[in-house]
């Protein structure tokens, strides 16, 4: 994997893993995204594509306080994946109707469509092309 692919994979992993402010505490406690998630599938324009080398080796936690963090899953992950954990200032907010704003600190961010499929979490990118499926971790 070249450096650019690693950076894109890493960024997309964190975009998926973000958190923000907006709904009441009661709404937050019921949010479907709260928990730890590990990516298991990725689709581009409806066609399943391979995960990058690093994606399956991290989980993302959406926290009830609307922040997100990401950690490596085990000590046996590829060295080129780099970071062990992140707390990079990403946050989320539930806008209702399966729409979640994911942003870094006080930036505007992007709106993702996020919903459950059984126990799995499905995140559709704003571009309408990329969809990722996560299992509870």
Could you characterize what this model shows?
With 137 residues, this protein is mainly β. The chain is 14% helix and 42% strand. Strands 1, 2, 3, 4, 5, 6, 7, 8, 9 and 10 form a 10-stranded antiparallel β-sheet that branches. The radius of gyration is 14 Å and the shape is globular.
Task: Compute the separation of the termini in Å.
Answer: 25 Å
> How many helical stretches?
2
H/E series? HHEEEEEEEEEE
Structural class: mainly beta
**How would you state the average pLDDT, rounded?**
81
Per the principal axes of the C-alpha atoms, what is the gross shape?
A: globular
Strand content: 35-45%
Helix content: 10-25%
Poorly predicted ranges (pLDDT <50, ≥5 residues)? Answer: 1-10, 14-28
C-alpha-based Rg, rounded: 14 Å
Per DSSP E runs of 2 or more residues, the count of β-strands stands at: 10
Major sheet details: 10 strands, antiparallel
């Amino acid at each position: 994997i070249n450096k650019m692919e690693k950076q894109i994979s890493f960024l997309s992993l964190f975009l998926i893993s973000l958190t923000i402010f907006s709904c009441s505490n009661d709404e937050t406690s019921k949010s479907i995204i709260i928990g730890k998630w590990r990516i298991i599938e990725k689709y581009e324009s409806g066609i399943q594509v391979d995960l990058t080398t690093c994606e399956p080796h991290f989980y993302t936690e959406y926290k009830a306080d609307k922040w997100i963090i990401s950690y490596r899953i085990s000590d046996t992950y590829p060295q080129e994946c780099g970071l062990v954990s992140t707390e990079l200032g990403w946050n989320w907010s539930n806008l209702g109707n399966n729409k979640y704003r994911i942003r870094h600190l006080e930036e505007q961010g992007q709106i993702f469509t996020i919903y459950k499929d059984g126990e799995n979490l499905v995140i559709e990118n704003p571009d309408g092309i990329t969809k990722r499926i996560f299992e509870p971790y």
